[in-house]
Design brief:
binds flavin mononucleotide; two-stranded antiparallel ribbon; alpha/beta; TIM Barrel
């Protein structure tokens, strides 16, 4: 059982991993912690931040400092967003409701996955926080549209369309552990959308199977035309795709490799961020995720062109350790670390953070 208190020896996000591992089953841990194939990208996502060096500034007055930011027409106390992660009841019985409450308590944004283990309506009713809905295209357009209409009606303020996972990555760690969803945990939003696909004998289960209903840029145009919500595309790594997204007038992009869970050996988002910022210009909203574990990581991401960051796995670590309290504490830790980094670099607001605060050999 998760604790109702935060263990006293937790000082940083990394400390939550130890407790989460104790509270989760081996199978759930493999699903949550694992990456694709040999997990090269998943590992590198965290390590790469350590290779970027900060160039600090001294003797600057930051006594009016803050981390406030504006995104998609809303104001947030800090730029740390809870990423859409599926099946949060795997880690705690309160699942997505607990993490949405944590985001709200800390003045940040929350993104609900299509594959949430609590329905989007139930999460919406649980509090007044600013929530976005993450959309996975369904096999049938009518089902995709139904999800979007439900999210609009329930008061979600943005539509984050994930485009980098039309099929699951090679999850070898999960396969070895024999992970399946336990009883009581299922994709609550989609229970009425069951439609199976069949593949002719001899045909490819990938090309003629799963990928036949995978979305294309035409589908992005279609759904953007159907909704009044701002559309953010999640899962861009290639600057050419950033250009394609810009051409569709989307409201923002999440530079992401899905936490290293789709295609192994992709570069880390932070590596490609400067090139994507160059393509989209200075004012276009860019979010980044995959591997953010420290306030210094957030600072570096902002210095290289991001407007905000998202965290994925840490949500599960916080939930498994101490429920909503754990997730709220994770957000607070990251924000405190970001504030400390900003103060030691002479930045009193997020817009003051720039590549001049990074050391280039
Ligand atoms: C267990 C798990 C489930 C996830 N489920 C989804 C999902 O349903 N939709 C989605 O867009 N991304 C999903 N993601 C990816 C996250 O939104 C995010 O891109 C990634 O976790 C960021 O990397 P990080 O875990 O290193 O912070 C999932 C990630 C994990 C770890």
């Amino acid at each position: 059982m998760p604790s109702l208190q935060i263990p006293s020896d937790i000082a940083a996000l990394v400390d939550y991993e130890k407790y989460a591992k104790q509270h989760l089953s081996e199978q759930a841990w493999a699903y949550i912690y694992g990456g694709s194939a040999d997990e090269i990208t998943a590992r590198q996502n965290e390590q790469v931040y350590g290779q970027i060096k900060i160039l600090n500034r001294v003797l600057t007055d930051v006594s009016q400092g803050h981390t406030q930011t504006h995104l998609l027409g809303d104001t947030f106390a800090h730029p740390i967003i809870l990423a859409p992660v599926a099946y949060q009841k795997l880690a705690h019985q309160d699942g997505e409701v607990a993490s949405a409450m944590a985001a709200e308590a800390q003045g940040g944004a929350f993104v609900l996955s299509t594959l949430s283990s609590t329905s989007l309506e139930t999460v919406a009713k649980s509090g007044a926080g600013k929530k976005w809905f993450q959309l996975y295209f369904q096999n049938k357009r009518e089902h995709t549209l139904d999800l979007v209409r439900r999210a609009e009606e329930a008061g979600y303020r943005g539509l984050m369309i994930t485009v980098d996972a039309p099929i699951n990555g090679l999850r070898n760690r999960e396969q070895r552990a024999g992970f399946t969803l336990p009883p009581g945990v299922r994709a609550e939003n989609c229970i009425h959308y069951q439609d199976s696909q069949s593949v002719e004998k001899g045909a490819s289960a990938v090309f003629q199977g799963l990928m036949t209903s995978a979305p294309t840029w035409d589908d992005i145009e279609w759904i953007s035309g159907e909704t009044t919500l701002p559309v953010i595309i999640k899962g861009i790594i290639n600057p050419l795709d950033a250009r394609e997204a810009m051409d569709r007038n989307v409201a923002g992009i999440v530079v992401s490799n899905h936490g290293g869970r789709t295609l192994d050996t992709l570069p880390s988002p932070i590596d490609v961020l400067p090139a994507i910022r160059q393509v989209v210009g200075p004012d276009f909203p860019l979010l980044i995720d995959s591997g953010i574990r420290r306030g210094t990581d957030i600072f570096k991401a902002l210095a290289l062109g991001a407007n905000a960051v998202m965290i994925g796995r840490p949500i599960f670590y916080g939930l498994a350790t101490a429920g909503a309290l754990g997730v709220a504490h994770i957000l607070r830790l990251l924000r405190d670390e970001l504030e400390l980094t900003m103060a030691l670099c002479g930045c009193s607001e997020l817009s003051a953070i720039s590549s001049r605060h990074l050391w280039h050999k």
